[in-house]
Amino acid sequence: MHIEDGILSPLAWGSWYAVTTGFIIPGIKEINKKAKENLAYKPFLAMTGVAVFVISAMHLPVPVTGSCSHPCGTPLAAIIVGPLATAVISAIVLFFQAIFLGHGGITTIGANTFSMGIVGGISGYITWKLLRSLRSPLWLAAGAAGFVGDILTYLTSSFELALSLHGNVPLLKQWMIFFMGYGPTQLPLAIAEAVFTAAVLQVMVNRRPDLLPGIKLLPKTSREVKPNGSYQ
């Protein structure tokens, strides 16, 4: 997902910056609003950002694409702090990874944020909400969110690359070529992210339900976490 500097044209990376800004601005407004309502929100958001930084820093190079494969952490972040806040977190994470770890680039932060923080986060969040509305067990909904968010992140990265680099090759064909380049490394990582997302969220709900008010436990318990941390 970490597309490097020099791969996308100025028009391409500038366009992705513009699109990403459309999510970052409302994300910042949401964060400021929640921080005023709850003093513990910013520290919790910072901890979530650290988690995304660590998870997404574990990467495997993919020479075919000029990029790399890695888990994202954004589906989990979107579930616990919201998809708009996750977009902001991702932009910050990608900036520091580019500066200190050499992962990705400065010009491509917009494109990388869009794929990992926006598409990955929102698709994971929608998957989570949809499955929970169908009374799916928490672990299954969280696992599916992790898997879907991870895979769609790389479908988006592949599209970003294909859109800029397909030349005379049909866009759809080049898109699939890039995605197949990610496939051998990304599929097992997506499965691992599914397991990780399910395990972390289940532990958080069981041990610190006060951090996630309103999230139900497994349907068989028929209990729901109240905002004060008690059950009904």
From TrEMBL:
<protein>
    <recommendedName>
        <fullName>Cobalt transport protein CbiM</fullName>
    </recommendedName>
</protein>
<dbReference type="GO" id="GO:0009236">
    <property type="term" value="P:cobalamin biosynthetic process"/>
</dbReference>
<dbReference type="GO" id="GO:0015087">
    <property type="term" value="F:cobalt ion transmembrane transporter activity"/>
</dbReference>
<feature type="transmembrane region" description="Helical">
    <location>
        <begin position="44"/>
        <end position="64"/>
    </location>
</feature>
<dbReference type="Pfam" id="PF01891">
    <property type="entry name" value="CbiM"/>
</dbReference>
<comment type="subunit">
    <text>Forms an energy-coupling factor (ECF) transporter complex composed of an ATP-binding protein (A component, CbiO), a transmembrane protein (T component, CbiQ) and 2 possible substrate-capture proteins (S components, CbiM and CbiN) of unknown stoichimetry.</text>
</comment>
<dbReference type="InterPro" id="IPR018024">
    <property type="entry name" value="CbiM"/>
</dbReference>
<feature type="transmembrane region" description="Helical">
    <location>
        <begin position="76"/>
        <end position="100"/>
    </location>
</feature>
<keyword id="KW-0813">Transport</keyword>
<feature type="transmembrane region" description="Helical">
    <location>
        <begin position="106"/>
        <end position="126"/>
    </location>
</feature>
<keyword id="KW-0170">Cobalt</keyword>
<keyword id="KW-0169">Cobalamin biosynthesis</keyword>
<dbReference type="GO" id="GO:0043190">
    <property type="term" value="C:ATP-binding cassette (ABC) transporter complex"/>
</dbReference>
<dbReference type="InterPro" id="IPR002751">
    <property type="entry name" value="CbiM/NikMN"/>
</dbReference>
<comment type="function">
    <text>Part of the energy-coupling factor (ECF) transporter complex CbiMNOQ involved in cobalt import.</text>
</comment>
<keyword id="KW-1133">Transmembrane helix</keyword>
<comment type="pathway">
    <text>Cofactor biosynthesis; adenosylcobalamin biosynthesis.</text>
</comment>
<keyword id="KW-0472">Membrane</keyword>
<keyword id="KW-0171">Cobalt transport</keyword>
<feature type="transmembrane region" description="Helical">
    <location>
        <begin position="175"/>
        <end position="201"/>
    </location>
</feature>
<keyword id="KW-0812">Transmembrane</keyword>
<keyword id="KW-0732">Signal</keyword>
<comment type="similarity">
    <text>Belongs to the CbiM family.</text>
</comment>
<feature type="transmembrane region" description="Helical">
    <location>
        <begin position="138"/>
        <end position="155"/>
    </location>
</feature>
<keyword id="KW-1003">Cell membrane</keyword>
<keyword id="KW-0406">Ion transport</keyword>
